[in-house]
Amino acid sequence: MYKKLIIAIYVSSICFSMDIYSGGRLTKHQRNMDVKSYSINLSVDTDNKAISGFVDISFNIKDTTKTTIEVDLIESYSVEKVLLNNNSIRFNHRNNIIRIKTATLEPLNIIRIFYNGKPPAASNPPWDGGFTWETDSLGYPWVGISCQTNGAHIWFPCIEHPSDEADSAEIIITVDKPLVVGANGLLIDSTSTNNQTTWHWKTQNTISPYNINFTIGRFNVVEKTLPLYEQTLLQYFVLPEHEPGSDYIIKEAEKYLHFYESVFGPYPWSNEKFGMIETPYWGMEHQTIIAYGNNYKVREPGYDFLLLHEMGHEWWGNFITVHDWADFWIHEGITIYAEALFLEETFGKKAYHEFFQNTVRGKISNKKPIVPKRNATSFNVGGLDVYYKGAMMLHMLRYLEGKDVVLKILTQLLYSKKELPNNHTSTNEFIDIVNRMTGKDYHWFFNVYLRSKRLPKLITKNRDGKKSIYWDNQSFKMPIEIKTSKGEIIKHQPKKNKKVDAKEIDPNNWILYRD
Ligand SMILES: [Zn+2]
After folding, report:
1. What is the pLDDT of residues 19-55, one digit of tens each?
2. Number of Cα atoms under 13 Å in the Cβ half of residue 82
3. Packing angle between helix 329-347 and helix 305-312, nearest 10 degrees?
């Protein structure tokens, strides 16, 4: 009985988390909708770990002859009332979807959803979703939300899909005094009653649902205007106990921002801010308000990995965004590659190569292709390969084409006109840019490293004191570096009947392969 109970609990918790995901396939009714803005108005009761309020969603309807609306919100909330264009309307809330059938819809509509309940508590944030209800060392509530994997519908009604970015979002949160709320964009105002303060934040930049976020704490706010490409406000929301580290972390942030601007162009959100907020979990790339829970930890050879990584997402993930989680490696793989470029710039070429040799390779598992089938959910791209194999792929592209070409390709990817609106992109668009800019057809390379989990196998046979070296897959055209017995390094095109004086193969560890 005991054992059965344990299994039942285990199975139900797995089902909960796998059921609640971001992305996947939009319903046909959701495909007919295009969200323009979210306005989230919530009171957060930190004593009872509950939220209540309403969310306005303004959305376009593509085909107004179709009149069903579907909005994602997990069922653990109770939906009290729904207004469509100011009129109360019937709805049902099943299978984590609020469904409304109406007689007519306008091209532009506003739906207001009143709801309340206890949000799921995150058991392993930021990887699984929910609220983290902490207290700081003085006993004040300290509350964070993470939802990249499980989706934003774990805390507010939305179209939970990376393809539907809102043009703007308001986050209006009421909490007890003296708590402070930090969120995306700019603070419009804060208004107080005797016991409570309402913090009104607004972003005018396009934003993915999972990036809409707030954190509550007894924060002090340290501000500085940074001389970036454009003057940019930096805001750091810091708990008083960690404020002595704020000078240090702001200096680091400034250094990393200058680095990213020099490689990838202007910081995308200078019209609002660069924000960091202390979170009771490790981190997340929430646009203009990076979750920073790293407590100034320094990684060898001397940088704050978490800050550097989440900041990199302001370009890779927030400014440019994938339409389908199948292409998630563009967010994570390129951000990890950017880390390698930072190491090279700051600590030299040796640090760049050591990063791939000592950090990247060991994290690649090759259990599944890093680009799965289309309409992927966040769960289809779990694991570290989207990060590290993605970065390794770019490292190999640099081996083939050189650093300048790779940087030009990445800049093209960021700024070229896309097929889709809101700077949404895809793996295919990336491959098209590579092929166009190099004048070559690199499908043989991308098919192996992006679309297959199987690594190429290098076969080596000794022949008359020399070696015959070739790939098991004849269509794989990767040249390989060879160190000869004289110590020369040459680039060799593997071929079955070609003998070569090879003392060492791939001495600089450029290639990911099996032998
Ligand atoms: Zn990341």
Report:
1. 899 999 999 999 999 999 999 999 999 999 999 999 9
2. 22
3. 130
Backbone angles phi, psi at 355, to 5 degrees: -60, -45
The CA 291 to ligand 1 mean position distance, Å, reads 11
pLDDT single digits (tens) 347-372: 999 999 999 999 999 999 999 999 99
Specify which residues 494 forms β-bridges with. Answer: none
Task: Report the C-alpha gap between 298 and 304 in whole angstroms.
Answer: 5
Burial of 448 (0-12, 13-18, 19+ CB in 10 A): buried
User: What is the C-alpha to C-alpha distance for residues 269 and 257, in angstroms, rounded to an integer?
Assistant: 12
**Distance between Cα 290 and ligand 1 center (Å):** 11
Structure confidence at residue 474 (pLDDT): 87
Domain ranges of the chain: 321-449, 458-505
Calculate how far, in angstroms, residue 315's C-alpha sits from the geometric centre of ligand 1: 11
| Distance of CA 333 from the midpoint of ligand 1 (Å) | 8
Strand partners, 171: 40, 201
Q: Provide the whole-model pTM.
A: 0.96
Q: What is the sign of the dihedral through the CA atoms of 299, 300, 301 and 302? A: positive
In contact, 209 and 78? CB cutoff 8 Å: no
CA 43, 49, 50, 55 torsion-angle sign: positive
Q: Does domain 321-449 have CATH number 3.60.150.10?
A: no
Distance 39 CA to ligand 1 centre (A): 26
- Alpha-carbon span 291 to 377, nearest angstrom: 23
379: left (phi over 0), alpha (psi -120 to 50) or beta: alpha
Q: How far apart are CA 84 and CA 157, in angstroms?
A: 14
Give pLDDT < 70 ranges for the chain: 1-18
